[in-house]
């Protein structure tokens, strides 16, 4: 509970603009973190550290901040786009939160069969494997090793790197940076004082910038922000809430409990609040591995994210519903295809 409270306070600090005692304490580790990331990026910029080029079209999708900004559904849309053209495509993820060793190249799906459950693979790789027919899904901390494996064993033409803007060891043909239209860069400080994984100046590495607009109240400001960055807007919003066992839609205005284990849960709750009467909100750490005992005593409908749902479906509960998101983006334009 103490760790959760500290995390909550730090997250609040990242986006509130407050300058509390904690803010100034965190400036010390932030100084060293910033120095390390600057040295590392400079070594790559000067070509002292070299990126490895592989024999495939490599697309990296990532962000500058911690937490969720909408990378997963965007990666899925890009993968579906290439697959719709009949091109062999793989998504490579680190497999964060999964039990499989990230040192190994782990084939989660060969495009037809799914070999590991979410507990082993991590929630996002499992979600890709379950939801995108024909997609090869691999996890490994070395994106280079995973990419070479995908090329040699599956003959893939396109490789999509999930959450890899900072992973510069592999050369990418297109670097796509995703930014949340509301949270943006928080207090513009690097970790742990702020949400930035690296300096905001490194936005220049992006070939394409996508501003993820999540039902913003002031769309004009979103357009203005996107124009400042020469970015493409991707509209994201709730599509439907369906039972993960039966597929039946949950009617509006019913009482429900919202449950999630994602980086930025506030947006998930915002999507639900106009349509349902949310009686309770339960938030776990990002990538949390659920136990049946945590949910089985909840009698009213449970609404969760699709990423969380893949870890809950084996509990055989009748009252679990998942929120499906819709994205509106032109992938051909994004990829200059």
Q: What does this 3D model show about the protein?
A:
It is a single chain. With 337 residues, the chain is α/β, with parallel strands linked by helices. Helix content is 32%, strand content 23%. The protein has ten helices and twelve strands. It has helices spanning 2-16, 21-45, 71-84, 118-121, 123-131, 143-154, 219-229, 265-272, 306-312, 331-334, and strands at 57-62, 89-93, 106-110, 136-139, 158-162, 174-180, 208-214, 232-243, 255-260, 277-283, 302-305, 320-328. Strands 3-4-2-5-1-6-7-8-12-11-9-10 form a twelve-stranded mixed β-sheet, sandwiched between helices. Helix 7 (219-229) links the parallel strand 7 (208-214) and strand 8. The longest helix is centred in the N-terminal third of the chain and has 25 residues, at 21-45. The termini are far apart. The model has no long low-confidence stretch (mean pLDDT 94).
Quick overview:
This protein has 337 residues and is α/β, with parallel strands linked by helices. It has helices at residues 2-16, 21-45, 71-84, 118-121, 123-131, 143-154, 219-229, 265-272, 306-312, 331-334, and strands spanning 57-62, 89-93, 106-110, 136-139, 158-162, 174-180, 208-214, 232-243, 255-260, 277-283, 302-305, 320-328. Helix 7 (219-229) links the parallel strand 7 (208-214) and strand 8.
